[in-house]
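Recap from last week: sequence in, structure out.
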Amino acid sequence: MINKREKLQYAYVFVLDLVTLAVSVLLAWLITDGLLGRIVPYDISDWVQTLCLVVVAFVVTFFFFNQRQNIVTRGMGQEVGLALRFNVLMAAVYSTLMLLTKAAMLDSRYFAVAVPLVNLALMVLAHTLLKHYLLHARNKRGAENLVGILSTVDHAPAVIWALHDDWSKRICGVALLDAPEEAVGREVEGVPVRATYDGFMDWIRRAALDEIYVDIPMDSGESFLPYLDEMESMGLTVHFRLKLLDRIEEICCDETSAARLSRELGRCAGGNIVTMGTMELELRDMVLKRVVDILGALVGCLISIPIIALVAIPLKLESPGPLIFRQKRVGLNGRYFYIHKLRSMYVDAEARKKDLLPQNEMNGLMFKMEDDPRITRVGRFIRRTSIDELPQFFDVLRGNMSLVGTRPPTVDEYRQYESHHKRRLSMKPGITGLWQISGRSDIEDFEEVVKLDVKYIDNWSLWNDFKIMCRTIVVVLGGRGAK
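Predicted structure tokens:
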């Protein structure tokens, strides 16, 4: 299972190395032509052909190298060795391509040698700068995974130090299962103690977490299985250290070398861990989904602006107050964000909700009501036509939401969630989703909503997203299920 650090690192290194190569080509040309005067005049078409072959050689070479090793833990010697092997192979691939295509610049040997030599030096420098950036800016990007640790007083420090090297993770807290209650609020290696044995599951249920690292002394792990099952039901990725594997490695190193090197296993704090979790999107799928979100949101914003302008006047005339309703919601794995909608209710709607709770038509944690008195007349129209959802295209553009996903709950709803309900938050929330095209407000059981959301997450594909978007248009135009 490829983890988030590996996905992000793959993208960062690819883009950085490509930019470095472009600079190397420019410098190589300045050196061989401007400084040494060794390049004879070539046509523009010859240069375009050569540059294309250089890029192809780079891409082919890049995919031959293992990009999963943590770049932060690589020493300078490793970086130089990697850059040397990379550029030698790239030069070989480039030369082969030049021969096969009989390129016009085949006789320009100075340029062919200068590019990998310059790129060798620049690649080492670029990777060093990238490592510095990843270590010092990781908590400022907001892209890191939020991690919780379940361990003991003796084992926790080693796990914390091991995870400090992973720039894609931010440790949010540690639960010390053998510590007294007074330990809560203290720190272990700079990480706050959030809970002890009595309250660690309550902390996990309510905290914004993406991953859990479990490192506790036990022989079989049988007693911990119910907790692991509950964590998995939330959609969390759980890294569980098995002491038995450590013992096998110690006694039978040669016989188990293949198993130890398998990518199905991981290592943390000097020991083996087995990772289980919900579906992990491939890097290309994550990139494609985000590209579709950005393009779709841009089109949605352009369409939304004139429509919002048209309904703004009657909305403000009927009910004075802000045009845009901004509400705190719960998104990916418990993260809070603000969702934006056109205000379809009177300004005191939230205060009046408590009095209307007995009339809730949903069986569960969502609130739906026929002829809700808090909704204005214009509000009913924009809800029926889903115009009130249009400002969420701007939320998608900002990255807080996706075009297709699961609907984000309110904070009050989230606080009442059972563990398995949190599974529906293991993917970024969306404007539309499987629930919306399967009946929307006609579904009166919250557990059915959860089942539909989990079904979407477990069977995600870009094609399914496309089908949901198409069916959403049909549902909206038909006004089915909207209240």
